[in-house]
């Protein structure tokens, strides 16, 4: 597993899902689908995504 960073390449919006996928060795599409489903059905607020955007450092 690699460090948790938002990659420069492969970002869709902020790179949060791409960074989480890289960190845990999962396909990026799967992580994005899980995030969307969680936002719609599980009530995961958008602000959690925004907080992760702020807290996870960008790749240098």
From TrEMBL:
Keywords: Cell membrane, DNA-binding, Membrane, Transmembrane, Transmembrane helix. The chain crosses the membrane at residues 29-56. It holds the Pfam family PspC. GO terms for molecular function: DNA binding. Residues 3-59 form the Phage shock protein PspC N-terminal domain. The keyword Isomerase does not apply. Its main location: membrane. It is a single-pass membrane protein. It is found in: Cell membrane. GO terms for cellular component: plasma membrane. This is DNA-binding transcriptional activator PspC. It comes from Microbacterium azadirachtae.
